[in-house]
Amino acid sequence: MAPALQTVTAHNGDDFDDKVSRLSSPFDDLNQQIIRLLQEDGRAAYDIIGQELGVSGGTIRNRVTRMREAGILRIVAVVDPVAVDYETDAMLGIKTAPGIAPSAVAQRLDPHAAVVYVMWVSGRFDLLVEVVCDREIEFAAFLNEHIHGQPDIAHAEVMTRIDMFKNQFLLKRHVA
Where are the domains of the chain? Predict the structure, then answer.
């Protein structure tokens, strides 16, 4: 099965750099339209996108190149988790140990391929972490090596998937 393609914007409006030109800005109307079309098909030809938006393929190529160079846009392959039935998919609610910042635990877990989602949250947990493994034995090994008994984690609640009703795997469908 071929992976679905999506674009991921790496921009956070709070830290937008004034040195980024309008041509690479995620706030530019044409760039927003380009991103929207690439989210639908990350392999779309620049000429086709240009025709749809009423500009040349070269303009699209230049805009995409500038956004990529500015770190605003990445085009990546993403497997649709609904289409691929992993053996183990779980959310971990993690409470960090006293004096440990959630970002420190997030940074420690980030490099692991099984970790597909890490979010700092409010409420009874400090972090929500999604872990996806092909086999249960891999999931058990991940928990034993990286979660249970770790000094930076005070408590972890493991919530395994029973069924999936919706998973909108495209992170941000429309740029506002």
Answer: 4-78, 88-160
Gap between the Cα atoms of 173 and 66, Å rounded: 21
The two tokens of residue 66 are 């500038």
pLDDT, tens digit, 9 for 90 and up, residues 6-19: 333 444 444 444 44
- Residue 44 CA to residue 159 CA, distance in Å, equals 38
The distance between the two most distant Cα atoms of the chain, rounded to a whole number of Å, is: 58
Question: pTM value?
Answer: 0.58
The domain made up of 4-78 is a member of CATH 1.10.10.10: yes
Which residues 6+ apart lie within 8 Å of 8 measured at CB?
73, 74, 75, 76, 171, 172
Our CA angle for 96, 101, 102, nearest 5°, is: 60
Question: In the chain, which residue ranges form alpha helices assigned H by DSSP?
Answer: 29-40, 46-53, 57-69, 102-109, 136-146
Q: How far apart, in whole angstroms, are the C-alpha atoms of residue 63 and residue 89? A: 37
Architecture of domain 88-160 in this structure: 2-Layer Sandwich (3.30)
Closest CA relative to residue 64, chosen from 85, 43, 79, 95: 43
